Amino acid sequence: MRKTVVIVCSFIVLTFMGSNHSFAQQKVVTGPEWNFVLGDWVGEGSGKPGEGTGWFTFNKDLGGNILVRKNHTLFPATNGKAETSHDDLLVVYLDNAGALTKAIYFDNEGHVINYTVSFNQTEKSLIFTSDIQQNMPRFRLTYKALENNMLNIDFEFAPPNHPEAFSKYISGKAHRKTATEKLN
Length: 184
Description:
- The protein has one helix and ten strands, in the order αββββββββββ.
- It has 184 residues and is mainly beta.
- It has a single domain (26-176), classed as Calycin beta-barrel core domain (Lipocalin).
- The longest helix has 17 residues, at 2-18.
- The termini are far apart.
């Protein structure tokens, strides 16, 4: 039995070493187009759930092979509704061609969204657009660079029967965290 396990493990290692998906061939996240979102951010916005404040971080991880965004938003109590918070994680990863064109999103409400990622050089914006799925809404998340270390952030959705008819759900602005601000 032990010999079989050793043979199988050796086969798996050799297969990965000889394939196009070799860990050694993985490209590292590069390019100045991503730099404008990297770092710690503090923001506020409004939309369907109401006005909220929060923070997010956008950092390279795993030796520069992925980008990770962690987000926390707090919606204060209003009109008899209790205070609520929203936490999510977004991982941007390299596709098979070594480009940062894929992302996956998870949140504390149980949502999982697969995104295609694009960069608009003219507007200096990073756009995450969810895949079209039958009978499901479609989502688009856009980060646009503004002057003075600011970002504009829009989260839009499109109804299942009109996957290109995006309408704004949440909009906000964020600024780079200063030395005196805390991310709680």
